[in-house]
């Protein structure tokens, strides 16, 4: 009782700060917390414009037995497995190359690599549609230069998903580069000087000092990348629409189609809940593995 009174008194003292936070809190509750809670409820209902009926776990059973959901899950996992590690490695490699440069050069490359991050994914996807164009695309131009027949990248089931993966990997990882550069700046120079005295070369200093001390940043970036890759949507809907067939169908695109094309809101909510649980499991496992390695 005394503790709660003390907390209330402290909150009252800081009331000006809480008043500034209040608009953001109201928006968070209205547009995130309530819709998420509502989606959990709808997942157990046959929901429609004219009314709803409580159906228990029927929507979840339909989700788990759907072959389309299995394909979407497999495609999403493939996309995640190939894009997340490569993106993290590229960010680390680029930051390693940029960090030794002078102040102005660092600022230039920070801006250059961060620019695609603030560019709309719609614009990036439209550019890549041109890159993959069968008749005049850049990729087929290089294939023709090498004497290889052109490929219809986005309309062949064996190349469409890889086209999306290559596109995601080749977009500069601006956030990762910025965060790695900031983290590298906090590593004490004395560690590198001691390693130099002990005879360690540049690669050994990078591998034995830089990489281990960047593990918290790597863990955070991997969590962000993992969540982002499980939510891949804009590239899919703009470039392939999930096709050809189900070759590039992903979970979020399937949820979108189930809700707004088929008007199966209950089933779409169940698929969203399953996606949330899968992402949570992967995130926890990834965190525990990285945290354990950090302790070792």
Quick take:
The protein is an all-alpha fold. Helices cover 75% and strands 3% of the residues. It is built from 15 helices and two strands.
List strands and helices in order, with pairings:
Blueprint: H1 2-13, H2 15-42, E1 45-48, E2 51-54, H3 58-65, H4 67-98, H5 103-118, H6 121-131, H7 138-145, H8 160-170, H9 174-184, H10 189-197, H11 202-213, H12 215-230, H13 234-239, H14 251-260, H15 265-295
Antiparallel strand pairs: 1-2
Number of DSSP helical runs: 15
User: From N to C, what is the helix and strand string?
Assistant: HHEEHHHHHHHHHHHHH
Could you report the average pLDDT, rounded to the nearest whole number? 87
Main beta-sheet annotation? 2 strands, antiparallel
Question: How far do the termini sit from each other?
Answer: 43 Å
Physical arrangement of strands within the biggest beta sheet: 1-2
Pick out the low-confidence regions.
none
Binned strand content: under 5%
State the helical fraction. Answer: over 70%
Taking all Cα atoms into account, the compactness measure Rg is 24 Å
From the helix content, strand content and strand pairing, which structural class follows?
A: mainly alpha
Shape: globular
By DSSP, the count of extended strands is: 2
List its salient traits.
two-stranded antiparallel sheet; 296 residues; mainly alpha; single chain; 15 helices
Polypeptide structure, described:
By secondary structure, the chain is an all-alpha fold. It contains 15 helices and 2 strands. It has helices at 2-13, 15-42, 58-65, 67-98, 103-118, 121-131, 138-145, 160-170, 174-184, 189-197, 202-213, 215-230, 234-239, 251-260, 265-295, and strands at residues 45-48, 51-54. It has a two-stranded antiparallel ribbon with strand order 1-2. A hairpin with a 2-residue loop joins strand 1 and strand 2. The protein starts with a helix and ends with a helix. The model has no long low-confidence stretch (mean pLDDT 87).
